[in-house]
Amino acid sequence: MTSMADESVCIQTSSELVPVTPSWFGEVVLLTAHLRKHGVLTKINERVRFARRRFGRYDVIDFLAVLFGYAISGERTLEAFYQQLQSFDAPFMALFERDWLPSRSTLSRFLAVLTEEPVESLRTLFLNDLLARPLTPNAASRDRLCKRHDQFTGKRPTRALFSLLPLGVSFL
C-alpha cells in the first residue's frame, strides 16, 4: 500500500478554544477590496457628512462598516453579528481602514439621530458609481449557502437590472 502522506506536514491539536473566522468574513474582504479599488471608500469619507462631523471617535464610515458587515453576514440580529465579530473586530475594521468597532449602543444612538442628508448623499454616491460602470447579466454563481446569484458585468444596464430599483425610479 502506498501512502500519499507528506512528512513535512505536522498536525497538532489542542483542547484550547480558538476563534474561527466567520463564514461571511471573506465576502466582506471582497466588498471592501472592490470599494477601495474604485475609490468608493475615499468618496464616502470625503463626501458623506453628518450634522456632527464626528460621533465621539467615530465617523460615518465606521457605522457603514458595521451595517455592511451585518447585511453580508445574514445574522438575524445585531447581537448575533457582534458575537461572531467579537474576536475579529480589529481586522474587520482594518478592512475599512478604521481602528475601532462602534459598540451596539453607539450604533443605536447614531441611527437614532441620523438625518436624511447623509442617507441621500450615500444613495447618490452609490447611484453615480453604478451609472459609471453599468451592469449587465453575464453569468451565475452560487454563494456559501448554494443560492444562485447572477453576476453583472459589461456596459449596458438591462430591464432586469432596472427591475431591482425602487418603484418610480427610471433611467431609460
Outline the structure in words:
There is one protein chain. The chain is 47% helix and 8% strand. It has helices spanning 25-37, 40-47, 60-73, 78-85, 89-95, 104-113, 116-132, 159-162, and strands at 136-142, 148-153. It has a two-stranded antiparallel sheet. Strand 1 and strand 2 form a beta hairpin.
How is this fold's topology laid out?
Elements: H1 25-37, H2 40-47, H3 60-73, H4 78-85, H5 89-95, H6 104-113, H7 116-132, E1 136-142, E2 148-153, H8 159-162
Antiparallel strand pairs: 1-2
Helix pairs in contact: 2-7
Q: What's this model, at a glance?
A:
It contains eight helices and two strands.
Q: What multimeric state do the chains show?
A: single chain
Count of helical segments?
8
Mean pLDDT: 78
- The count of strands amounts to 2
Order of the strands making up the biggest sheet: 1-2
Biggest sheet details: 2 strands, antiparallel
In the predicted model, the low-confidence regions spanning at least 5 consecutive residues are: 154-172
Structural class: mainly alpha
- In percent, how helical is the residue content? 40-55%
Order of helices and strands: HHHHHHHEEH
The radius of gyration is: 20 Å
Strand content: 5-15%
How far from one another are the termini? 67 Å
The gross shape turns out to be globular
